Amino acid sequence: MVGVSFDTLYEHYMALSAAKDKIGEHTREYLEAIESTKGTEREKKLATQMIASFFKYFPTLQEQALEAIFDICEDIDPLIQIGGVKVLPSLCKDNKSYTGKVSDILAQLLQLEDAAEHHIVCTSLTELLHLDAKSVIKNLFKQINERDNEVRDKCLKFLLTKVKGMDKSIITPEVEDVMITEVKNSLVDISGQEYVELIDLLKSTRISQSFTGQQELVNMAVEKAELHKEFHPTVQNAQVDKLLTCIKMVTPYFSAKVESTKFVTYLCDKVLPKFDEIGKLEKGDLLQLAILRQLAELSTYCGQLDNPSLYVVQIYQKLKDYMPPPPEDTTNLTMPILEFSLVECLLYAFHRLARQCPDFLTHDPQVLKEFRSRLTYFSRGVQDKKTKTVAPKLLSNITTLIRDLFYQPPKYQCVIKLSFKSEEIATAAKTTPEKISPSGKRHTPITFESNGSATQNKQSRGDGVPLYTPPSGKFSSTFSNRGRGRGARGRGNPRSWRK
What we know:
By secondary structure, the chain is an all-alpha fold. It has a domain at 320-327 and 336-427. Helix content is 56%, strand content 1%. The chain has helices at residues 6-19, 27-35, 41-53, 62-72, 78-94, 99-109, 115-144, 152-163, 173-186, 192-203, 211-225, 238-250, 261-271, 275-279, 284-299, 308-322, 340-353, 365-385, 392-405, 423-428, 476-479; strands spanning 334-335, 455-456. It has a two-stranded parallel ribbon. Helix 9 runs antiparallel to helix 10 and helix 15 runs parallel beside helix 17. The radius of gyration is 32 Å and the shape is elongated. One of its GO terms (molecular function) is RNA binding.
């Protein structure tokens, strides 16, 4: 059977419209409308309208009619193609069993580059979300999980811009379950930027609202960071970037019930010994600062360590690198460069973890004496800097931490707010008032004797250093070995996007 002329097709349309209860007797007219999707431009447009209008009345022809509309969606004429895309959701309203197949086709059509066409596809997919969100989400992830698929980025963007944040009447708990399962499956083989985006998508679900779900997010980050492997800084910064990204994505979820122990032990045991190598990488100083900032934050919620001194000693050794001993010649003191931002992080992490092995500094009097000489010398630099360019909060934190360590024996009791934490995080965190003595008076600041005014020959760095932001494209190869080849889809290549 072949299509009919436009005039005959229009007569068929009028007949079907007037048939009412006897419309089922007009199978021939509807079948000719299906065949007319291969006709002229006018016939294709009218045939598309007829197929959509009377689709529910001809169940035995629905498969054939649906395939005809799919062909229309691949037409060389953009207007005809848009017409086909627009009617697809209406076919699913009449028969929801087709939602899966239609959403799969629409997901593939997201690759259309023309802005108007792409918008229509997004609108049709959104309509389908209201009909059957689970099927739509499954098919979007089907495209995301396929290799060498040029539409995967578009599908992910649709999820993040259209699905994320939709009303709970559409994204029900059952739909969220599907989304959570699909994201977990997708995390196995993705790039760095995709990891960030998918975790953001998970955060929009109820998984982030419970301690169990938060622990699950942390476990995903642990797995993706591959903490079971050795740490090897590379010229491309890839492994460093990956680690920083994985930690950053879940840092807000650490708490007394969701511990950061695995990341802390990895940073101490594997990363700190390679700290100098990291410094030699591109933007190595920012990488080093970013790592120490994360170590400091993570140490707040580190659980009980099996052998804490093994990890504390790594922080201690690094502290000694940035807290120089006083010079032997005290006649002409020249203060070296003091890395206050790095020392704040290291002192804080040491202060938090050393409470698990309080005899670390006291088991050998010589160790304690030597460490305190460094603390004293560094404190002179802190005092000198208070009227300079370093942030007062940073200097105050260092002074407070040092004060605890000068007790006999050292104490690990003070509570501070890290200077680099954003106001948003600081406000959300539970704060602790300034420590007050049993007498009700605040401790007076500890001062350190000086043999003269210290001078500096170079300007020290304050806490205004920006946190290093990993470039997603740069470390994507360490997240996935997938080749991301791009195929070309041209008009007039029927079914090039249909599988």
